[in-house]
Amino acid sequence: MPMEKYIVIHGPNLNLLGTREPEIYGNVTLDQINKMLYQEAKKFDIELEIYQSNFEGEIIDTIHKNRECAGIVINPAAYTHYSIAILDAIKGVTAPVVEVHLSNIHQREEFREKSVTAKGCIGQISGFGAFSYILGLKAIMNHTRNIQY
Ligand code: DQA
C-alpha cells in the first residue's frame, strides 16, 4: 500500500513565528513547529509535505496541486477572515481539510471571530499554540482513516 500523503499549509506572516507578537503566538519558530510535525509523521508512518506562503494565489495553487492527498491541515492566518477564494479552493478539492490556529480566534478582536474558510473544513482547532498543528494532523488522520475516537 502506498504511504498516505498529508499536507500542512502555513499562511501569511507565519514565517515570522518566534519573534512575531510572542505574547500572542509564543516563542516557537516555524522551523520548530515543522520539526514537531515531521516527528509526528514518522510516528504514524505517513508522508508529510509542509508549505508556507504569504500569497493567496500560491496557497490556492498548493491546495489544487494536492487535491487528491489524504488530508490537508491549513492555518490560513489572516486569510481565514475574508478569503472566499481559499474557501472555494478548499471546497473544490476532494482532500479533507482541517483548519488550525495558534491563538484562540474566538477570544480576540471581533474581526477574528469569523472564519470564512472553516465553512469548507471538517473542523477547526484554535488556541493551543504550536500543539494546534499536532492536534490538526491527528484529527485529519483519524478522519481519513475513519477512526471515531
Ligand atoms: C492566526 C490567527 C489570525 O487571526 C491571524 O491573522 C494570524 C494567525 C493564528 O494562528 O492564531 O496570522 O491564524
What key phrases describe this protein's structure?
five-stranded parallel β-sheet, 149 residues, 17% strand, alpha/beta, globular, Rossmann fold, 6 helices, binds 1,3,4-trihydroxy-5-OXO-cyclohexanecarboxylic acid
Describe this structure in words.
This protein has helices at 22-25, 30-44, 56-65, 84-92, 110-113, 131-144, and strands at residues 5-10, 47-52, 71-75, 97-101, 123-126. By secondary structure, it is of the alpha/beta class. It has a single domain (5-145), classed as Rossmann fold. The protein has a 5-stranded parallel sheet, sandwiched between helices. Helix 5 (110-113) links the parallel strand 4 and strand 5 (123-126). The protein is globular, with a radius of gyration of 14 Å. It binds 1,3,4-trihydroxy-5-OXO-cyclohexanecarboxylic acid. The site of 1,3,4-trihydroxy-5-OXO-cyclohexanecarboxylic acid (DQA) has 10 residues, from loops. Belongs to the type-II 3-dehydroquinase family. The active site is at residues 25, 101. It catalyses: 3-dehydroquinate = 3-dehydroshikimate + H2O.
Could you write a compact summary of the structure shown?
Keywords: Amino-acid biosynthesis, Aromatic amino acid biosynthesis, Lyase. It is an enzyme of class 4 (lyase). The protein has helices at residues 22-25, 30-44, 56-65, 84-92, 110-113, 131-144, and strands at residues 5-10, 47-52, 71-75, 97-101, 123-126.
